[in-house]
Design a protein that fits this description.
The protein is 22% helix and 45% strand. It has one helix and ten strands; from the N terminus they run αββββββββββ. Strands 1, 2, 3, 6, 7 and 8 form a six-stranded antiparallel sheet that branches. It has a four-stranded antiparallel sheet with strand order 5-4-9-10, with no helix packed on it.
């Protein structure tokens, strides 16, 4: 009987210790997460009367009160599948256009009829820091129109 009660006390004490040590760490993580706002914007580009020649998703984040935006993920898809290359560009307010990343070859989306190119890491708070109001665009090779979004 004593052996089982001792084990139960040990397990209970270990669980209580885990809860008391995890609670401050979890509260700190929640406080840090409250200071970061995440955004996702999607654009669809029409070409030659088609409803959507390709689409672009921009994922970016910012700390509250900051004039900088972290662009962590850019993804573009073209349907139906057509091999090609894409790149992303940016233009900061009052500046000139810069290439974010050079041409990257599209790959086929598994179980779909689309080509995709992506840059960065989705869900992360990493990537280039750009000023609020920066125009970010994606351009496919041999297509005249670019898909753009202004970082808010």
């Amino acid at each position: 009987m004593w052996n089982q009660t001792g084990k139960a006390l040990l397990i209970g004490a270990t669980a209580a210790l885990a809860v008391t040590t995890a609670a401050p760490a979890q509260a700190a993580t929640q406080a840090a997460a409250a200071k970061v706002s995440k955004h996702q914007e999607v654009r669809c580009v029409t070409q030659s009367g088609r409803t959507c020649a390709y689409s672009v998703s921009f994922f970016y984040w910012n700390k509250k009160g900051s004039g900088l935006r972290g662009l962590n993920y850019v993804q573009t898809a073209r349907s139906p599948y057509k091999a090609g290359k894409a790149r992303w560009l940016y233009k900061q307010p009052g500046g000139r256009t810069h290439v974010g990343k050079n041409w990257r070859k599209a790959h086929a989306i598994q179980h779909g009829n689309a080509a995709e190119v992506d840059w960065g890491k989705a869900g992360a708070t990493v990537g280039p820091k750009l000023r609020k109001g920066t125009l970010v665009c994606v351009q496919w090779a041999h297509l005249a129109k670019k898909a753009c979004h202004t970082l808010k």
